[in-house]
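Readers of this paper often ask what the protein records in our data store actually look like. Below, we set out a record of this kind in full and without editing:
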Amino acid sequence: MPVEGGSSSGSASAGRHPKQKRKAHSLSIRRTNSTEERPPGILRGDMLEGQDSKLPLALRNNLLDLFGQIEREFENLYIENLELRREIDSLNERLTGDGQAVDGGDPTKGALKAKASHSTSQLSQKLKTTYKASTSKIVSSFKATAGSRALCQLLREYVGHRDGIWDLSVTRTQPVVLGTASADHSALLWSIETGKCLLRYAGHAGSVNSIKFHPTEQMALTASGDQTAHIWRYMVQLPAPQPPPDVSVPCEDDQDSSDREEGEVDGEGPCEVPTVRVATATLKSHQGVVIAADWLVGGRQVVTASWDRAANLYEVETSELVHTLTGHDQELTHCCTHPTQRLVVTSSRDTTFRLWDFRDPSIHSVNVFQGHTDTVTSAVFTVGDNVVSGSDDRTVKVWDLKNMRSPIATIRTDSAVNRVSVSANQRIIALPHDNRQVRLFDMSGVRLARLPRSNRMGHRRMVCCTAWNEENQTCNLFTCGFDRQAIGWNINIPALLQEK
C-alpha cells in the first residue's frame, strides 16, 4: 500500500502465521534428582554452586533457572525438528510409491538420498523438489514448448526509479509513451520500444501513487502522498527504434530467483533527462494521501480518491471542487472512470466498491457492490457494461452493471490481487499479485496464461499494477512492482485464445 513518505521498504506482503507448537509428550521433559538422568545443564548448575561467587544466592538461583528454561526451549525445538524430518522422509516415501521422481532422478535413488540427508541445506532442497514433484501434474499455460513460446515475449525493461513503482499507464495520443509513478516522489515517461527515459516530473513532495493521461491532449494527472493531485503538460520526442533484446527463455513455470539481490536491477538508470517541476493545476481539497486519480470522459473533469475516505470531482480548467463523494467507511484504494460514459467507480478497504453515476446532472446516484471479504484493491470498467474488482481476499470478480447483486464470474487465486487491468479489444484481465505472479484470464474466469518469472525475466518483488496497450495492431502488457522496474511484454492474442 502506498505511504505518504514514499518508501517501499515496508512492503505489504502477506504475514506468515506462527506455527503452532506440537502437543507431544516429549515437549514436557521432567527433571529428576538422579545424577544419571540429570541433563548437562543441571550438572553445570551443581558445579556453579560449588564455586566461589560474588553474586547473591537469590540472583544466582534466578540465573540458573533462566538458563534451564533456555535449555528446555532448545530441546523442544530439537525434538520438533526431528519430527519434521520424519514427516519429510515419510512424504518422500509416499511420492516414491506413487512413481513420482524425487530430485529429478530415479525414484528409488531419490528416496534413499532423502533418507540419508540430515543437513539443513539438504532438507530445504528436499522440500523444494517435493513441492515441484507434487505439482508437476498441474497444466501450465507457459510450458517450454514450441507452441507456447509465441504466447509471451519480453519487450523491454524500464529501469530508472529509485524506489518501488506503484502505478503505470500508457498515453492515449501520439506519441505513445509509458508513464510510471513511483514512491521516489517522481513520475517518468518512457519510450516503449527503446526503454529510454524521456521526461521526469518532480513536482510532488510525496510518493506518486497514480498516473493517468488525458484522452486527447499531452497532459498527465498524478496523485500523491502529499495530499494533492497534479495536472501537468509534457512534450517528448521519441528516439530511433532499437532491435529488441535477445530473449531465448520461453514462458516457463516458476524458477528460483534467490541468486539476485532483492534491490538489484539490471541496466542503468536514466541519464539527465528533461524535468518538469511545476504543475499546470494543483488539486488540494483532500485531508489525506491521494491514492489514485483519473480523467472523466472528455477530459474536462477529474476524480481523485484519498485515504480521507472521500473521492473528489474537480473541474480541470478552474481546479474547483465540484462534488465530494462520501460514503465509504474506510480509506479508498483506487478510482476508475468509464471510457465512454460519465461513470466513476471507487474501491475501499471497507471491502466494498461504489458506482457513482453522473450522466444526469441533477441526480448523482450511487450503488454499493458487496462481494469481497477483504480490502478491494481496485475496480475497473470494461468497454462493455462490466466492472472487474480485485481484492486482498485473493479473488477477482466480474460484475454486470445492470445486476449488482452477485458477480457473473469469480476468479480464485493463491495470492492477494493488486491493481487489475482489462484489455479493451479482447477483454482479457491481467492480475498482478503479491507473490510476484501476473496471470491472464478471460471475462468468464477461464485462466489463459501466466507471465514468466525466472532468474532472467519477470519481477523479483510484489507486482503492483498492470496496463494494456493495443495500438497499431499490437498488444503489449506492462507491469510494475516493488523491484523498482517496469516490464513490457508482447502478448500474442491469437495464439493465447487458441490455447484456450
Observations:
- The mean pLDDT is 80.
- The first helix runs from residue 40 to 49.
- Helices lie at 40-49, 57-97, 107-116, 120-134, 493-499.
- The chain is about 15% helix and 30% strand.
